[in-house]
Predict the 3D structure of the following.
Amino acid sequence: MSIGWIVLACIFGGALLRMALRLILPEHHLSVESKDVIKLGMALTATMSALVLALLINSAKGSFDAQRSEVTQISANIILLDRVLAHYGPETKEARDLLRVSAAGMTDRIWLATGTGPAELKPTAVGAEAFYDKIHELSPQNEVQRSLQAQALKLSVDIGQTRWLLFEQRGRSIPMPFLVLLIFWVTIIFLSFGLFAPPNATVIATLFLCALSVSGAIFMILELDRPFGGLIQISSAPLRNSIANLGE
């Protein structure tokens, strides 16, 4: 949130600063020829800014959607794993109970109930390995149980693999130099707006709303880049729904 306010201050402050400088600039600096050159330069800068902004939004949204898909995949695999163990027989009750506890613990670590601190995406090796060992220790009595055991082992590996994939994706997907450069370009554009705009309330309000829109877009990019924290989060509903259906 603080970065969004800083961006808004830079952009809108640049426009106000340029409006103040306009009053002390020599008249020949504001000639028609000078304005034409400035407008051409700002048009080029605006085009580059629009391209970079679209690239950053697309990158952040793609990363957000990929991690949301992985959470949904984990949820589906947990339910499927529980059903496979249920079909194996009553001897898997201990493993199913451990699965429920592990899934609930994983959900609580990722979506912290207190809302403080970063999400814990790193899988806990002890719980995951204990569950895997529990399935591996089963003694199939026929071909059906051997097939179900193999499916359960594969599903547990898939869940672990997806968890580690989420952990490896925990870093920001937005290159910070891109973001800094974009803010710099947009600030320059608003500086040029202030150079030619008359200092009245309507113009200032319009510049503020435009600056708010641009800073809002940058804020949205930063929020999408933090899928398990902030205002825009991946929902925990798929995992919580899967936990609620375990053991049936």
About this structure: DSSP finds eight helices and no strands in the chain.
